[in-house]
């Protein structure tokens, strides 16, 4: 629900665990709206990846991205306490709608948060988040030189992510 001044609509969490069905074909391709940026936050709230897309997207410096990731991590962690509807497991806001952009978030069973900003009411963002999660598993976690919770420095992941987002 969208209110005056870009009010928030929080949806129940979606965790890749028991009882939750992932989209049938997350790699089917992104056919939604314009994606402005993609972030990956580890379970302790540290930003391990961010990228901006598009010519009109304002470029963020590393400090701004760290602040945004930390703020989103904190807000999503306390959402269970703020919600009038009880939730299982850690709280998570899966969608924040504003007049200028929507922020979509996927919380994984391991505590990673994948979130992206996109044009308002863009279709296909949940499937795109699952695609990003699959790319993370394929190109980051299978890299023998990658250490958990460290910044992601994988050229192949970056290349495949750019393809998925475009």
- Spatial strand sequence of the major β-sheet: 2-1-5-4-3
What integer is the average pLDDT?
79
Query: What is the count of structural domains?
Result: 1
User: What's the main sheet like?
Assistant: 5 strands, antiparallel
The SS-based structural class is alpha+beta
Order of helices and strands: EEHEEEHH
Outline, from the CA principal axes? Answer: globular
Overall description:
The chain has 166 residues and is an alpha+beta fold. The protein has helices at residues 62-82, 125-140, 155-165; strands spanning 35-41, 47-52, 95-97, 102-107, 113-118. The protein has a five-stranded antiparallel sheet with strand order 2-1-5-4-3. A hairpin with a 5-residue loop joins strand 4 and strand 5. Helix 2 (125-140) runs antiparallel to helix 3 (155-165). The chain starts with 34 loop residues before the first strand and ends with a helix.
The gist of it:
Helices cover 29% and strands 17% of the residues. It is α+β, with helices and mostly antiparallel strands and 166 residues long.
Set down the secondary structure blueprint.
Layout: E1 35-41, E2 47-52, H1 62-82, E3 95-97, E4 102-107, E5 113-118, H2 125-140, H3 155-165
Antiparallel strand pairs: 1-2, 1-5, 3-4, 4-5
Helix pairs in contact: 2-3
Keywords:
alpha+beta, 166 residues, 29% helix, Beta-Lactamase, globular, disordered N terminus, five-stranded antiparallel beta sheet
